[in-house]
Amino acid sequence: MYNQTLRPEKEVILCEDGSNTLFSKEFNEPYHSTKDGALHESLEKHVKPALSIHKNKCSLTILDICFGLGYNTFATIYYIKKYNLKTKVHILSPEFDEGLVASLSTFEYPSEFDSIKHIIKAVSENNHYKDEQFKIEVLIGDARKTVPQIKDSIDVIYQDAFSPAHNPLLWTKEFFSDIANISKPDTILTTYSTAAAIRLGLYENGFLIFVYYPEMARYSTIASMKMLENLEYIDMELKKVRNPTAQSFRDNDYL
Ligand SMILES: C[S@@+](CC[C@H](N)C(=O)[O-])C[C@H]1O[C@@H](n2cnc3c(N)ncnc32)[C@H](O)[C@@H]1O
User: Fold this and answer.
1) What distance in Å separates the CA atoms of residue 253 and residue 255, rounded to the nearest whole number?
2) Which secondary structure element, helix H or strand E, spans residue 208, and what is its range?
3) Is the CB of 161 within 6 Å of ligand 1?
């Protein structure tokens, strides 16, 4: 029985792919698109494109913003194990809801995660897991404070915060600058957001912008520090000319 006693302002909802997510009354938003599905969205919008674009790297450092139910982190490990990939992965994931993380050992995940239950339990109990191939660190606290303190250089960013409308401070030009500061020349960022203001904030920090078409899910965005082949490139200079009033989110508007 799922035990989420510390922050009861959430309820479990079943997504169309059969996986469970939560609805946050605090942010007035589900943790995942219930139509695309928690597991499906994680795999299609984040894990698959990230591992495919960086398929030649033998180790990856991933920034998973934010941990929530941990689907993106756990789906990464599930996918790597399923296809017997040798990639070593270090995941850093900010999350300020410590009670949620502590409750995850009793959350009803899809059967795909059965073989990694020991990892889910360890993360839930210790905010941490490590074996020869995987290292997971949940950074408890406000992402705006923990991200600038990260010392590692990041290969992949899963930007999966609540929507810009409901959690704008995790989508500002200044937050993207903190992310760009720990990025490499070939870092990529995956996100469900396709909003012009969000793409502009990423572009203003050196990311090039691409449209991504996941399987059986709404189109999404991939931002990359270097030009990517085989993806639909968006010319942001042209976008700015066509839409001169478009503006990235700024901290000052929300602090
Ligand atoms: C949409 S959910 C993330 C879903 C998650 N990626 C998953 O796969 O389950 C957003 C998460 O961000 C957390 N959050 C919101 N603002 C935050 C902040 N400033 N710092 C750290 N965590 C934050 C919320 O507590 C919530 O768990």
Assistant:
1) 6
2) strand 208-212
3) yes
